[in-house]
């Protein structure tokens, strides 16, 4: 039996069936609001049309360049689509230095163009005129496949001079400034769109793409008749369009206040985008570790953990060092630990606090804290996914998923399925599949499908 004190401490993270249903209804209402022209401006979930209207068939061919910006790293990729649902990807990872994440936008785009030029040089492709797909994983209002206006930065980025601008143009200009490579940007897409496309390339039933990584968001296939923001020209010969829900912003009109805790409020208060991306702040990798850190600090203060140690002060100081000392990956490691050894948990405790011998009880409590935080995150993601599945007319829907939290957490998938079984309509069938390199393969597929349509 879990200790009463730690149960009490975590009570607010355990969502009741009523709360789950209520969040579900509010989420569905918000998606409808985002799609309708008359309510779009007021909606949190912007439901941007992506201008991607065809799913891949599997027979796409050709070589494409892809860029992937949006998490902790920046990548340049060379993707060869080989038909028969097959693709080969070569890629190079480049760090995005912290100061570039908040420095002038021009410098960020110059850095991107510089990495791209180095990659092209290395692969001897300077004059190959390969089409490029740019996976830019921030909220963008698309005006077409290759025109995307950044509406706001998220995930710790904050470069001035980019919000309100077309990122396709900024990239094009940065490539021109260098003048050493001929590259045409043919598509800009969100990582969730890339995930959906790359999963649909493998499985024809895929209709939803979800990322639970540094940030959290989803994209899904919507009937064009429901997408007011899509120009009539794009509705004439097409039945569907992929919609980028931008669900990370859900809750900004107070819809989640009845489930948010004091810890959620503190994480938000100390972030660089206060009052924004509230759903994301309860679900994604950038914030889950910060939540656990705040709970651990409270748990120490009130002697719920490390009760017998006279070094609690010292431990508290270790956690105060900075908001990211308790990394989100620790949650996955701790939750995959087993009783009574708790070897990974002990290693983390030793590294963080210099405490050599944590008790089994303390390890159990810390694991329980992590479980409550990640289970709530998975439940919220599942609420969103179920809402989207239930909107889609197909009876069977496969959900493509990616992102470090989903990928590396031992139980995130199981937690999600648990909630989805309660919320997905009974006449539907669903499955979840892990995406393989959605940002790279997805970008190439969007570029390929677009040129087919032309
Ligand atoms: C962004 C989304 C993105 C998600 C996952 C969020 O912060 O707003 O556009 O899809 O992170 O990377």
Automatic annotation (TrEMBL):
Domain Hexokinase C-terminal residue range list: 207-449
Enzyme Commission number(s): 2.7.1.-
Cited InterPro entries: ATPase_NBD, Hexokinase, Hexokinase_C, Hexokinase_N
Keyword Nucleotide-binding appears in the UniProt entry: yes
Transmembrane segments: none
Signal peptide residues on this chain, from the entry's feature table: none
Catalytic activity: D-fructose + ATP = D-fructose 6-phosphate + ADP + H(+); D-glucose + ATP = D-glucose 6-phosphate + ADP + H(+); a D-hexose + ATP = a D-hexose 6-phosphate + ADP + H(+); D-mannose + ATP = D-mannose 6-phosphate + ADP + H(+)
GO molecular function, a single term: D-glucose binding
Enzyme class: transferase
Hexokinase N-terminal domain ranges (all copies): 5-200
GO biological process: glucose metabolic process; glycolytic process; intracellular glucose homeostasis
An annotated GO cellular component: mitochondrion
Pathway per the UniProt entry: Carbohydrate degradation; glycolysis; D-glyceraldehyde 3-phosphate and glycerone phosphate from D-glucose: step 1/4; Carbohydrate metabolism; hexose metabolism
Keywords annotated in UniProt: ATP-binding, Glycolysis, Kinase, Nucleotide-binding, Transferase
Physiological role: Catalyzes the phosphorylation of various hexoses to hexose 6-phosphate.
Family of this protein: Belongs to the hexokinase family.
Protein's UniProt name: Phosphotransferase
Species per Swiss-Prot/TrEMBL record: Drosophila pseudoobscura pseudoobscura (Fruit fly)
Species classification: Eukaryota, Metazoa, Ecdysozoa, Arthropoda, Hexapoda
UniProt gene name: Hex-C
């Amino acid at each position: 039996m879990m200790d009463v004190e730690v149960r009490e401490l975590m009570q607010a993270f355990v969502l009741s069936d009523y709360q789950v249903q209520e969040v579900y209804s509010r989420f569905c209402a918000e998606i409808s609001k985002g799609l309708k022209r008359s309510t779009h401006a007021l909606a949190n979930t912007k439901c941007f049309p992506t201008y991607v209207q065809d799913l891949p068939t599997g027979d796409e061919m050709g070589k494409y360049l892809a860029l992937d910006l949006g998490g902790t790293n920046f990548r340049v990729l060379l993707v060869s689509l080989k038909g028969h649902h097959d693709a080969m990807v070569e890629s190079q990872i480049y760090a995005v230095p912290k100061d570039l994440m908040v420095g002038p936008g021009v410098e960020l785009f110059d850095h991107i163009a510089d990495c791209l030029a180095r990659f092209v040089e290395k692969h001897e492709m300077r004059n190959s005129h390969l089409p490029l797909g740019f996976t830019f994983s921030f909220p963008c209002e698309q005006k077409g496949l290759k025109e995307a206006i950044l509406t706001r930065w998220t995930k710790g980025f904050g470069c001035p001079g980019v919000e309100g601008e077309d990122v396709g143009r900024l990239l094009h200009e940065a490539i021109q400034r260098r003048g050493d490579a001929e590259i045409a940007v043919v598509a800009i897409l969100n990582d969730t769109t890339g995930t959906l496309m790359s999963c649909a390339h493998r499985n024809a039933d895929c209709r939803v793409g979800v990322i639970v990584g540094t940030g959290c968001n989803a994209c899904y296939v919507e009937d064009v008749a429901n997408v007011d923001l899509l120009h009539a020209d794009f509705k004439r010969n097409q039945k569907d369009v992929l919609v980028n829900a931008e669900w990370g912003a859900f809750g900004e009109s107070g819809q989640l206040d009845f489930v948010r805790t004091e810890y959620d409020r503190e994480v938000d208060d100390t972030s660089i985008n206060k009052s924004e991306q509230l759903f994301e702040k309860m679900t994604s990798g950038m914030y889950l570790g910060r939540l656990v850190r705040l709970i651990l600090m409270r748990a120490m203060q009130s002697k719920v953990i490390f009760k017998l140690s006279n070094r609690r002060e010292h431990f508290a100081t270790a956690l105060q060092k900075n908001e990211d000392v308790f990394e989100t990956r620790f949650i996955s490691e701790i939750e995959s630990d087993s009783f009574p050894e708790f070897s990974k948990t002990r290693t983390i405790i030793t590294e963080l606090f210099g405490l050599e011998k944590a008790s089994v009880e303390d390890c159990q409590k810390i694991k329980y804290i992590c479980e409550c935080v990640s289970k709530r995150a998975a439940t919220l993601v599942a609420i969103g996914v179920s809402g989207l599945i239930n909107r889609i007319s197909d009876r069977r829907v496969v959900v493509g998923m990616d992102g470090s939290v989903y990928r590396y957490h031992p139980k995130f998938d199981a937690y999600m399925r648990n909630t989805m079984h309660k919320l997905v309509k009974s006449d539907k069938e669903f499955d979840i599949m892990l995406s393989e390199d959605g940002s790279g393969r997805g970008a190439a597929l969007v570029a390929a499908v677009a040129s087919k349509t032309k």
